[in-house]
């Protein structure tokens, strides 16, 4: 069996998770494989050689990345040069489309196979990007069925692999085990608060989220609050906000464990993102919110082409859970919505049934399916030839 070289680039934590699972699945089919590019700790643990710290790619919004543009352009040039010299059988860009698609286009034009894993939100805004995608990638891997249909309509080779989280998370309710693990009193209602994993997200959302917690406590005094922090920096940021804004609030901040925190909760208040899919798979009612910087929001609101932005609503193609933007993100709006999610049993039962239906649609063995496509595009069959 000859050595197979695969380039791989992930720019944030969610991509690191997908990349690590993909590397693991490819190794199971083709053990003699070498991965190089950019990855986080999980990908590195699976044997990927990362050429720089993944955090250098982690930027958010529309305007904010402009501040980091010189550095990002240097990283692009470095990766293009590296892959041209290294000559991998295929290069995989995981999410981070504004960074990865440029590299993929450059390499494909020079004869290197490319694959993009996780569709950009091209179906929602800036739909003209599909023309560049068609030129940049040999194959698109999507996580959601509605994305696959979009690419088929535009003639881009595509496979919907489903979502790895749907394979990992059980359909059974994990509430009791999660509460025992976190030592949460089973007699109290619990609100999980997830203000995001990036500093900018937490800055935008932590104050209205804490104000909402105070609002809820006045109406339901026995409610408890759990906040998972993505890392030590976010934990310090959240604790500082609590000390400044809500010193008397019965809130516990834990490091990591966002899935455990959501499973232990009765309802979740969260920033929009992949964690809203986790909450759906954990069968937790939720309110999803997001706030942009002023100029980012002006651009976003003009370009967006879809009525929804949260993953549960996009997957259902209807308003399954409340979602709020900008000035709507305040205690007076969020609080009553959370109470409805907490106290309306009929609504909760119907919501969980919808969540379970979506869960089953997404559980497809994503990483193994993605590995099959990667190896096929790289010209390698399952018997190693």
UniProtKB/TrEMBL annotation:
Protein name: Lipid-A-disaccharide synthase
Keyword Transit peptide set for record: no
Family under the similarity heading: Belongs to the LpxB family.
Keywords per UniProt: Glycosyltransferase, Lipid A biosynthesis, Lipid biosynthesis, Lipid metabolism, Transferase
EC number in record: 2.4.1.182
GO cellular component: membrane
General function of this protein: Condensation of UDP-2,3-diacylglucosamine and 2,3-diacylglucosamine-1-phosphate to form lipid A disaccharide, a precursor of lipid A, a phosphorylated glycolipid that anchors the lipopolysaccharide to the outer membrane of the cell.
Pathway given in the UniProt record: Bacterial outer membrane biogenesis; LPS lipid A biosynthesis
Family matches, as HAMAP family: LpxB
One Pfam family recorded for the sequence: LpxB
An annotated GO BP: lipid A biosynthetic process
Reactions listed under catalytic activity: a lipid X + a UDP-2-N,3-O-bis[(3R)-3-hydroxyacyl]-alpha-D-glucosamine = a lipid A disaccharide + UDP + H(+)
């Amino acid at each position: 069996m000859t050595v197979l070289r695969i380039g791989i680039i992930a720019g944030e934590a969610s991509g690191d998770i997908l990349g690590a699972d993909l590397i693991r699945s490819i190794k199971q089919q083709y053990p003699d494989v070498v991965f190089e590019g950019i990855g986080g700790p999980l990908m590195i643990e699976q044997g990927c050689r990362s050429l720089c710290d993944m955090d250098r790619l982690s930027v958010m919004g529309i305007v904010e990345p402009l501040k980091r543009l010189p550095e990002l352009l240097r990283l692009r040039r470095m990766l293009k040069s590296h892959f041209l010299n290294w000559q991998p059988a295929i290069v995989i860009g995981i999410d981070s489309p504004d960074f990865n698609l440029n590299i993929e286009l450059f390499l494909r034009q020079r004869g290197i196979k490319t694959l993009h894993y996780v569709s950009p939100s091209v179906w929602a805004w800036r739909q003209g990007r599909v023309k560049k995608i068609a030129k940049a990638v040999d194959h698109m891997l999507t996580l959601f069925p509605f994305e696959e249909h979009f690419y088929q309509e535009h003639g881009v080779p595509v496979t919907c692999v489903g979502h790895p989280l749907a394979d990992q998370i059980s359909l059974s309710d994990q509430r009791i085990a999660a509460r025992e693990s976190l030592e949460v009193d089973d007699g109290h209602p619990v609100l999980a608060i997830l203000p995001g994993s990036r500093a900018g997200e937490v800055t935008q959302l932590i104050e209205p989220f804490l104000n909402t917690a105070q609002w809820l406590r006045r109406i339901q005094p026995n409610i408890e609050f759990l906040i998972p922090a993505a890392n030590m920096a976010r934990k310090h940021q959240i604790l500082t906000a609590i000390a400044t804004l809500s010193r008397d609030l019965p809130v516990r901040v834990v490091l990591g464990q966002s899935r455990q925190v959501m499973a232990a909760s009765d309802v979740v208040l969260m920033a929009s993102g992949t964690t809203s899919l986790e909450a759906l798979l954990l069968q937790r009612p939720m309110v999803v919110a997001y706030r942009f910087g002023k100029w980012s929001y002006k651009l976003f609101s003009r370009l967006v082409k879809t009525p929804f932005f949260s993953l549960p609503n996009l997957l259902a193609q209807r308003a399954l859970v409340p979602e709020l933007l900008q000035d709507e993100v305040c205690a007076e709006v969020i609080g009553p919505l959370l109470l409805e999610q907490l106290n309306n049993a009929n609504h909760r039962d119907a919501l969980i049934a919808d969540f379970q239906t979506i869960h089953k649609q997404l559980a497809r063995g994503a990483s193994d399916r993605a590995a099959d496509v990667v190896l096929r595009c790289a010209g390698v069959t399952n018997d190693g030839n």
